[in-house]
Amino acid sequence: MRALPLLLLLAGCGALRAAGLLKDALRPVEETREEVDEREERIEGQRVRFIRPKDAAGTLPAVVLCHGAQRDGIDDPRLVALARALALRGALVATPDFDSLRAYRIDPGDPDRLALLAARVAGDGRVALVGISFGGSYSIVAAGRPAVRDKVSAVLGFGSYADLAALLQAWLADPSPPDPPSYAAGRRAVLLGNLDRLAPPGDRPQLRAALK
Predict the structure, then answer these.
(1) Spatial separation of the C-alpha atoms in residues 211 and 199, rounded to whole Å
(2) What is the band of 9 on the pLDDT scale with cuts at 50, 70, 90?
(3) Quick one: CA dihedral 50, 51, 54, 60, positive or negative?
(4) What pLDDT was estimated at residue 177?
(5) Which 8-state DSSP code applies to residue 54?
(6) CB within 8 A of 116, min separation 6: which ones?
(7) Which of 30, 44, 62, 131 would be 135's cystine partner, CB 3.0–4.6 Å?
(8) Residue 189: in which H helix or E strand, if any?
């Protein structure tokens, strides 16, 4: 979250607004539940949560916020807090839930799904794409898709990766020095989630056992 005010300032939202957004993003989600309107839809089979300020009138700036590779998806309290903070600053926020990222898998079709959702949320206006970790990489790729590229107002990525293929190759190599326990657990989860693409069928049972 420390990088958030700087990114927002660079995006031109102003110091006071950036400070207020950070303050709201750090509040417990229990405190903000009644301060925004939330609803969920299934769009092309995908779960999407929409969050907007209460009593909002007129056209709101649109933001699509994409979660990273972690099991809670759009239900992660940190993502919920950020989405609500953006809504409290006047935005219509859509958070798409990606089953692949929940399972620590990379689905090549997800950026296209993200682009189509962003175009739908933008309507006749524009939309900002914001993503965490792998979601940030997806946002960068989605922003260039024909369905939405002319409607994108900004792309913000937090802890994103410029080259996912190179990242997976690096994760397949022995780290030196060894990873901290939390990083090692994340590495194992992502490798397990993508094992069908990374190893031939005969090698998968042994690799799966070694990674667990």
Answers:
(1) 13
(2) very low
(3) negative
(4) 65
(5) T
(6) 44, 147, 148
(7) 131
(8) helix 181-193
Q: Is the peptide bond before 177 cis (omega within 30 degrees of 0)?
A: yes
Alpha-carbon 174 to chain mean position: 28
pLDDT digits (tens, 9 = 90+) for 23-39: 666 677 776 778 889 99
Judged by DSSP in three states, 203 sits in: helix
- Cβ-contact 117, 92 below 8 angstroms: no
- Among the ranges given (46-55, 133-142, 198-207), the one the predictor scored with the smallest mean pLDDT: 198-207
State the Rg of the chain over Cα: 18
Nearest to 93 by CA among 106, 83, 85: 83
Measured N-to-C along each axis, helices 134-143 and 110-122 cross at an angle, to the nearest 10 degrees, of 60
pLDDT tens, position by position, 175-185: 666 666 666 67
Query: Hey, what are 12's tokens?
Result: 């031109």
Cβ neighbour number for residue 68 with a 10 Å cutoff:
21
User: What's at 24, amino acid-wise?
Assistant: D
CA distance from start to end of the chain: 31
- Which residue's structure tokens are 């925004």? 36
Which residues, 6 or more positions from 200, have their beta carbon under 8 angstroms from its beta carbon? Answer: none
- Residue that is written with structure tokens 């926020």 in the block: 93
